[in-house]
């Protein structure tokens, strides 16, 4: 990352062309750059229609210009936004003009957000939530990201850290002023009971990490079964487009294909796999190996069988939820269906609504639509687990000196601080902010 004293600029809106393009400028020379482009700095936080001109006074565009004096800005620095027309030539001309102003440079990926973090405007959880909000494609992803970007999750973690700090303060008070009357109560009665309660709260919180992962990354559903059971046809029907090649030739599907669906506001990732059977054909055997591998990591398996077939091997009871689906219902209406959880026809659409309902029920079982102050990233979960380990250690060490137990609580608090960035996390910053696009 480049020097923080530089004034930076970038296109902060979406791809071009567009109706409106927002060019953001942040840093100590932002207002000087604004004056160079439009002749003045408009009143703070009031949109003003002004003309952008080049250094030779050539007209570039008419734009709405806003100024945000620091620290009351997104980055905490002086900021300017130019809301100009979103034509490629217009934006490129404005950016070229900014490039010619001394002391200005184009922003690195995520640099505006990084400055907001460094200036105390956002913590790391809020920054990551902002990145997820920009990338959100489903309603539940939006809600999860909004909870984190607005500070809801940070407030929870900081509240836990404050309780740990208070516990350490009480322990130190008992150690230093054990003979004084103004030390409130005993550590055993006032602190360790709260630490046991805190450990329980953190355990319940971690139990919901899987829900956060599924909302953010999607429930993993694998379509499996023998050749010609209708797997690729189901995949195409769910996608409402031709994703997989469909033929009557067994073994047509050789690789694992996937699509993402928005189902009831949840992201669902569905995989089509090679037909399961014994074969000596080398490429098909590799496809089957890949199919079995992706099935091992599935959250739900849709095992398809053509209604009336009897030679299909039963699925292993490996703990992965499964739906046994009879296919080609339009051809086999008079045959028994008791071997299947439900039957469908992708040709007529029969059973498809029930199938989608079953899938949605499964998603909601993993990730109920309630409070979304839950961990959604591996980084959060790992630090929460380490923090909880030290709390358990302090609670279990009843025969150990109080100062050693207080040290375990300090370490527990430090891992909570690593989640929000309240302690040293410099080695994480480049990774986190690299997820952002230029201009954010």
UniProtKB/TrEMBL annotation:
Protein name: tRNA modification GTPase MnmE
UniProt binding sites for K(+): 228, 247, 249, 252
Binding site for GTP: 228-233, 247-253, 272-275
Recorded GO MF terms: GTP binding; GTPase activity; metal ion binding
Lineage: Bacteria, Pseudomonadati, Pseudomonadota, Alphaproteobacteria, Hyphomicrobiales
GO biological process, one term: tRNA wobble uridine modification
Residues that, per the record, bind Mg(2+): 232, 253
TM helices/strands, residue ranges: none
Co-factor binding details: Binds 1 potassium ion per subunit.
Function: Exhibits a very high intrinsic GTPase hydrolysis rate. Involved in the addition of a carboxymethylaminomethyl (cmnm) group at the wobble position (U34) of certain tRNAs, forming tRNA-cmnm(5)s(2)U34.
GO cellular component, one term: cytoplasm
Stored CDD domains: trmE, TrmE_N
EC number: 3.6.-.-
SUPFAM superfamilies the UniProt entry points to: P-loop containing nucleoside triphosphate hydrolases (SSF52540), TrmE connector domain (SSF116878)
UniProt xrefs under PROSITE patterns: G_TRME
Family as reported in the entry's similarity comment: Belongs to the TRAFAC class TrmE-Era-EngA-EngB-Septin-like GTPase superfamily. TrmE GTPase family.
Protein's organism: Ferirhizobium litorale
Domain called TrmE-type G: residue spans: 218-364
Protein location: Cytoplasm
Keywords: Cytoplasm, GTP-binding, Hydrolase, Magnesium, Metal-binding, Nucleotide-binding, Potassium, tRNA processing
Binding-site residues, (6S)-5-formyl-5,6,7,8-tetrahydrofolate: 24, 81, 121, 440
Entry-linked Pfam families: MMR_HSR1, MnmE_helical, TrmE_N
Cofactor(s) required, per the database record: K(+)
Subunit structure: Homodimer. Heterotetramer of two MnmE and two MnmG subunits.
């Amino acid at each position: 990352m480049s020097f923080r004293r530089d004034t930076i600029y970038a296109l902060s809106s979406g791809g071009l062309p567009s109706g409106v393009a927002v060019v953001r400028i942040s840093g100590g020379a932002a207002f000087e750059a604004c004056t160079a482009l439009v002749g003045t700095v408009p009143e703070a936080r009031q949109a003003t229609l002004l003309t952008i001109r080049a250094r030779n006074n050539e007209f570039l565009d008419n734009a709405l210009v806003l100024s945000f004096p620091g620290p009351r800005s997104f980055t905490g620095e002086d900021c300017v936004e130019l809301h100009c027309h979103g034509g490629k030539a217009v934006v490129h001309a404005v950016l070229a003009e900014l490039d010619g102003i001394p002391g200005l440079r184009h922003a690195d990926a995520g640099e505006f957000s990084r400055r907001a973090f460094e200036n105390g405007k956002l913590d790391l959880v809020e920054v990551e939530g902002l990145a997820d909000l920009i990338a959100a494609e489903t309603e539940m992803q939006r809600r999860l990201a909004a909870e984190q970007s607005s500070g809801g999750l940070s407030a929870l973690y900081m509240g836990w850290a404050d309780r740990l700090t208070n516990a350490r303060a009480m322990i130190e008070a008992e150690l230093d002023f054990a003979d004084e009357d103004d030390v409130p109560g005993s550590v055993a009665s006032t602190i360790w009971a709260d630490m046991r309660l805190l450990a329980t709260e953190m355990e319940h919180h971690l139990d919901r990490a899987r829900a956060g992962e599924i909302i953010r990354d999607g429930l993993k559903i694998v379509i499996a079964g023998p050749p010609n059971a209708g797997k690729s046809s189901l995949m195409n029907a769910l996608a409402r487009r031709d994703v997989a090649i469909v033929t009557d030739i067994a073994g047509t599907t050789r690789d694992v294909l996937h699509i993402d669906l928005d189902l009831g506001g949840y992201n669902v990732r569905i995989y089509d796999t090679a037909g399961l059977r014994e074969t000596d054909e080398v490429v098909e055997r590799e496809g089957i190996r890949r199919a079995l591998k992706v099935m091992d990591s599935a959250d739900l398996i849709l095992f398809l069988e053509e209604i009336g077939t009897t030679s299909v091997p039963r699925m292993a009871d490996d703990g992965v939820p499964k739906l046994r689906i009879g296919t080609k219902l339009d051809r086999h209406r008079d045959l028994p269906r008791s071997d299947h959880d439900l039957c469908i026809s992708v040709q007529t659409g029969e059973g498809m609504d029930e199938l989608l309902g079953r899938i949605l029920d499964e998603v909601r079982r993993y990730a109920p639509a309630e409070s979304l102050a839950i961990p959604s990233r591996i980084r959060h979960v790992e630090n929460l687990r380490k923090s909880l380990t030290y709390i358990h250690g302090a609670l279990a060490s009843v025969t150990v000196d109080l100062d050693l137990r207080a040290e375990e609580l300090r370490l527990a608090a430090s891992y909570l601080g690593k989640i929000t960035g309240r302690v040293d996390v410099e080695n994480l910053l480049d990774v986190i902010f690299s997820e952002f696009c230029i201009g954010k």
